[in-house]
Design brief:
CATH superfamily of the largest domain: 2-enoyl-CoA Hydratase, Chain A, domain 1
Radius of gyration: 25 Å
Structural class: alpha/beta
Distance between the termini: 46 Å
CATH architecture of the largest domain: Alpha-Beta Complex
CATH topology of the largest domain: 2-enoyl-CoA Hydratase, Chain A, domain 1
Number of strands: 17
Number of domains: 2
Number of helices: 19
Helix content: 25-40%
Bound molecules: hexanoyl-coenzyme A
Strand content: 15-25%
Amino acid sequence: MRYNYEKQHRKGKLHAMERIQALLDEGTFVEIGSLASHAREGFGIEQAVTPYDGVITGFGEVNGRKVGIYSQDFTILGGSLGKQHGAKIAGIIRLCIEARCPVIGINDSGGARIQEGVHSLAGYGDIFYYNTLASGYIPQISIIAGPCAGGAVYSPGLTDFVYVIDGISNMFVTGPKVVKGVTNEVVTTEQLGGAAVHSTDSGVAHFRCRDEKETYNHVRKLLSLVPHYYGDNQAKKYDYRALENEQKMLDLLPEKSNRTYDMKNIINALLDKGSFLEIQEQFAKNAIVGLGTLSGINVGIVANQPYHMAGVIDIDASDKIARFVRYCDAFEIPLVTLTDVPGFMPGLQQETRGIIRHGSKVLYAYSESTVPKVNVIIRKAYGGAYIAMCSKHLGADFVYAWPTAEIAVMGAEGAIDILYHREIKAAADPEKFKEEKIKSYNEMFLNPNIAAECGYIDEVIDPDDTRKILFQSLALLIHKKSTRRLQKKHGNIPL
Ligand code: HXC
């Protein structure tokens, strides 16, 4: 086979086959369906030569473990998807479901092959169907390494992890020309669906890489951290090494509770060195989600990020957290939650866009999940967000609190204004009166004591013991079997 490497290189992209070679362990790729060709007549397609019908499919290994892969070849009719091309992709996903291994899709395509009409659409339909069947059973990874336009975007949209690459990814339902025609907006492809947009604003992408090489290395790291199929007990290896914190944990918190700090320092101090792999790093930065290991145990991390918007939960943070919790639950990855949250985001814009609907997803996802769930309340846990962030009430196995934890319906200022607005007005010295009330509110509520007395917190722990206690709790729960069973088809998550 003579691949047209040059045509791709001129566009600053690797060829479909080079991409497979860059991603898989050397010499492991086995191609299937290499003799497939287009199946239609009309609009000149009968003269077109379409080796492997424009998509290379097969299987191989990553880090010594099997994976299925497809890679669209833009040099063949723009990587467009015709009947055989679609059938090959759907077929490889189905094969991976049966072989129980991850499937990786490298997308570089002009979308539905115009000359093949409804057969192209049928191909997409089959792919979406198998993407959905595979969901929660095998990991599905999409790499957007060129255009991905029209309904084609919904296959990556259905998968677990979407990679975008600076300068070459373009992903949109309708391109600039259609947008101009319909809404009269003038936009570039980059503005509509470039790597920056999908990693920062839309939340469609989970990882943004600077170039293709970085992308394939990153996928290899990701695959080393996730189970390769539902029931894969890779995640259950652990040991008792290096449980002491190397760092005084309270040094990572500012003295005053209204000062901000970077939760990532705490995450990195708790996890095995260098193991944290953040997901959706640039999207909804007020929440942090990612994968890592804790003394060898694979864990999913969910945390608030006081460094951005004080760690408040808004619509985007809700979607980000809920989706990740469900991912971890589906693949039985234990969840470690680190809480420092002042509440759900107030305001007209959030209410009218549906913070109720989106915030509910977090409650639903945590309540529904049956994986080991351990929560550490670092500082604030206020109001509905206290409940939402993996509280005992939503089925956490263990909730620990640092002595710095503050568990309350709301912060002192707001609470006193509501409770004593009349008395403040009538007081001889309103400021003094208010200060005294705030002081006693803080003494009563802004600590973990009442919650611990009532059993809502299992233990108030020395921050420097956190890594050890997390490990011991997870080791206990590693073979957790939920006894919760209700006969029903499925719940109705507020989507
Ligand atoms: C058939 C296609 C094609 C398509 C590109 N080609 N897209 N052939 N069907 N959808 C062919 C071109 O004719 C050209 O052939 C070659 O691929 C390379 O394309 P270029 O346009 O020269 O490349 P470039 O300038 O890089 O532009 C890339 C592009 C553009 C932006 C992707 O090709 C484009 O706009 N394509 C159409 C995108 C689109 O609207 N697709 C349909 C979306 S709707 P030659 O012979 O000249 O090399 C859809 C519905 C799916 O996908 C629904 C699922 C539910």
